[in-house]
Design a protein that fits this description.
5 helices; single chain; about 240 residues; 11 strands; eleven-stranded mixed sheet; alpha+beta
């Protein structure tokens, strides 16, 4: 299987981000022969394994079968090449990796809503409350303050720091900038996504922007110039 290099960089960037989040929780993973792995409990919405190659090697399947973290755990099948249904996994979602060329023209923006970088634990707490689905949903914090000190990671928020209207996370790794965890508050103008992207391009000049989306969100980012470069799938397994 021939893999677009943009696809491979997006997958690697995402695995590096997953590892950064787990490190911030004191539970780092490890990179091992085409996989990122973490046998410890991971934060909500994050996988225990990310594939970094499209090759379906028997060793990959064997490694995943022996990972066996406690409780419900997930595998991000970055190249949509694994069939884990026979191994007790259910398919949670399918999505598309997206890529924006480093030299793509910046989007037009004109909302005049101020954007800022999240810098304090209090601002981060407010950012996460706005990002939660639904907003304010009760769950253990996903993004510890340690991430504010992580090199190449930036949390962006629009509007009032105590009640952001929009936001997202940028993470630089693998020669690209990953854009993830984007959100719009109810009633916020969709134009804020274009402004988020414009700020990202200013902060990380000369680097492509990558991520993954599905459904309406995928359509929104494609309208801002992103291209689909390959599919991915997420599998979940409930122990016992």
């Amino acid at each position: 299987m021939t893999v677009d290099p943009r696809w491979a960089r997006a997958a690697r960037n995402n695995a590096e981000w997953c590892d950064a989040v787990c490190r911030a929780h004191g539970r780092p993973g490890r990179f091992d022969d085409g996989l990122w792995l973490n046998a410890a409990p991971v934060p909500a919405f994050y996988p225990n394994a990310v594939t970094l190659t499209a090759e379906v090697a028997e060793r990959t399947l064997e490694t995943l079968s022996h990972l066996d973290p406690p409780g419900r755990w997930g595998v991000k099948d970055s190249f949509a090449t694994l069939d884990l249904s026979a191994r007790g996994f259910d398919l949670l979602m399918s999505a598309q990796w997206i890529h924006l060329d480093a030299h793509a023209p910046p989007p037009d923006t004109s909302s005049h809503v101020p954007w800022r970088t999240v810098r304090t634990p209090g601002e981060l707490e407010s950012w996460e409350a706005a990002w939660s689905h639904p907003p304010g949903a009760a769950h253990a914090p996903v993004f510890p303050p340690a991430l504010l000190q992580e090199e190449g990671v930036v949390f962006l928020a629009a509007g009032d720091p105590a009640r952001p209207l929009a936001g997202g996370i940028a993470s630089r790794a693998a020669g690209v900038v990953g854009l993830s965890n984007t959100f719009l508050a109810e009633g916020a103008p969709p134009l804020l996504y274009a402004e988020l992207l414009a700020h990202l391009r200013t902060m990380f000049p000369g680097l492509p922007v990558v991520g993954y989306e599905h459904g309406e969100a995928l359509d929104a980012w494609r309208s801002l110039g992103f291209e689909c470069v390959g599919p991915l799938r997420v599998w979940l397994k409930q122990r016992g």
